[in-house]
Amino acid sequence: MPEEELELIGQFARKKLNADELYTFSLILCDNEIDRDSEKFTVSALHTLAKLFVGKTGIFDHNMKSKDQTARIYAAEVMTDPQRKTADGEDYTYIKAKAYMVRTEKNKDLIAEIDAGIKKETSVGCCIKDISCSICGRNIKTEGCEHQKGKVYGGKLCCYLLSEPTDAYEWSFVAVPAQKNAGVIKSFNPAQETAKLAEWANEYKNELKADIIRAAASVIPEMKSAALDEICDSLSLDMLREMRSAFDMSARKNLPVVRQLDCKKADGENENSEYKI
Fold first, then answer.
1. pLDDT at 126
2. Of 78, 99, 77, the residue nearest 32 (C-alpha)
């Protein structure tokens, strides 16, 4: 994890956290697409919300209980995809947020569900000052109008425009979000994958070193294990594999496999008598 991201997360923590303690993921909070309620955020509202949502907690099903707090947003930005259009012809614009949680025994199942794409859809809770009709522009709260959202007037779909947000409360994992595109973004993190590969390679190298030192104890007992360990540290995995193979062969020659009980023929006894003590 980049140091600058750790610094952003550090703004909300009371102690310094390291990358191994944290689990992070990206999500789309909301966008300017017309949602299932025939409402949409304006682009200007998205820019305001991106700032308001930084530091806000993630919960489940908008249940305002502290025990349901699962994650916290530490960064958010407004993104635009000019190649994609909304139902009313605007460039598709959305808030991409980054959230973190601390890895614990309690939330390991949730992390697994997020990675598997089971816990994915999200919804936001916020306060909007201005709600207006996309057809006539009237303020629905103060004036009202005769148009019904979801219906088409003169070839134009009516929806309510949500603008001038004044607060952002929370974001939630939900089963069916009002906004179809809101949810956790699936992404490949090359830094994390590289770290995993490096960890596995180091574990394998330690196994090779242990096998070499064990075999060397019978072949060249005069050599101290600390010296051999230092030599192994400077070798590649291929060279370590060759060294282990060579020591194994030498060990088998020096210490051939023998029976636990020595077999000696005895006259006049049955064929199993040589195994008697």
1. 87
2. 78
pLDDT of residue 81: 93
Measured over the CA atoms of residue 114, residue 117, residue 119 and residue 124, the dihedral's sign is positive
Position 98: which residue type? Answer: K
Greater confidence (79 vs 207) lies with 79
3-state secondary structure the chain: CCHHHHHHHHCCCCCCCCHHHEEEEEEEEEECCCCCCCEEECHHHHHHHHHHCCCCEEEECCCCCHHHCCEEEEEEEEEEEEEEECCCCCEEEEEEEEEEEECCCCCHHHHHHHHCCCCCEEEEEEEEEEEEECCCCCECCCCCCCCCCCCEECCEECCEEEEEEEEEEEEEECCCCCCCCCEEECCCCHHHHHHHHHHHHHHHHHHHHHHHHHHHHHHCCCCCHHHHHHHHHCCCHHHHHHHHHHHHHHHHHHCCCCCCCCCCCCCCCCCCHHHCC
Q: So where are the chain's domains?
A: 3-186, 192-254
Residue 220 pLDDT more than 70?
Answer: yes
Report pLDDT for 197: 52
Q: How does strand 152-153 pair with strand 156-157?
A: antiparallel
- pLDDT, tens digit, 9 for 90 and up, residues 98-137: 999 889 888 888 888 888 888 878 888 888 889 999 999 9
